[in-house]
Amino acid sequence: MALPAGISKVNQFLSSSRAALGSAKNVQCVMGNEAADLDSMASSVMYAYFNAQNAGTAGDTVFVPVINVPREDFKLRTEAVYLFKEAGIDIGLLLFMDEVDLGALKAKGRLMLTLVDHNKLASFQEQLAGCVVEIIDHHKDEGLFTGASTRIIEPVGSAATLVAEALLAKGNQRLEQGSATLLLGTILLDTVNLDPEAKRATPKDQQVVEQLLKSTGADRKGLFDMLQKEKFNVSALDTSDLLRKDYKEWKVGKIQVGISSVLLPIADWLVKDTKLSSSLDKYAKARKLDVLIAMNAYTEPQFTRELVVFCPDASLRGKLLSFLSGSDLGLAPMAASTVDKATALFAQANQSYSRKKLQPLIDGFFGNLG
To answer: For the structural domain made of 7-231, what CATH number should be given?
Structure first.
């Protein structure tokens, strides 16, 4: 299949920047936030490309986009996997956080950082603060890095809007079909296809989308609908992937708890993984969890919630299940011959219980155990 027009230039940039990483005098890494959603990834790639185009062949600095998660986590962002392929980006040429030592580059005095889609470093990366030279972001201004040479922080719907604006200001030749598709899809997903009711899109997002549509010839609704579909497409993910795709972990007293949001029915999960209890046990042991909970949510055809509770300690499990069953979650046990006693499956009638609401309920229970 032929690549979209112009994307070969982006792939060539990605290849050459990786190759120059070890030898360049200075390395300017363009890095999204630690959540590494589609906006962070697409904006990192295209803003690094923009910087490289502006710099030309002169100078001794290489511009390198860095995806701020390990490579193996990329497949969890299913909408990003789809859009990068649709745009023609060679995934193998991307550079991930586990493939570059930013600390070593800093220690050698070679590192400069451009932050996109965030303007405050994650706590585990705060040691890199002295290297920040640019910011392109759409979140609340934290008032940091005021001496950055470029500091663009605007409350638009997507950081990709600001990146596209910078590229479009240099002329349409900088944004050909493939790269424009990458930015267009990102903005549409972030703004819910510019839906006024979502209250995310601004006039600037609208203007940039109109320009990108001219470069791509894309069907706006068709592209958005595919991205929405792929965002919830977990068919290629195994149990470990499903659990860590959207996962939170914390400790209450001596109890280590993990909760995952899983986007498929329990019945389908049991078909996908016939040894689900063993998979849950493996995941829990790797993270030293006492309790692992999966909150299954899906729309087939109406929105439905279900709950999986894995707890190998029989005494703790009995207390927890009794508490949850007596709460207002509205739990009804689901039978399954393929799971062991450590795993309990429930239909959940009270759909208002997202993880944000369940976590304090769990905290209260374990806090009272003493």
So the answer is: 3.90.1640.10
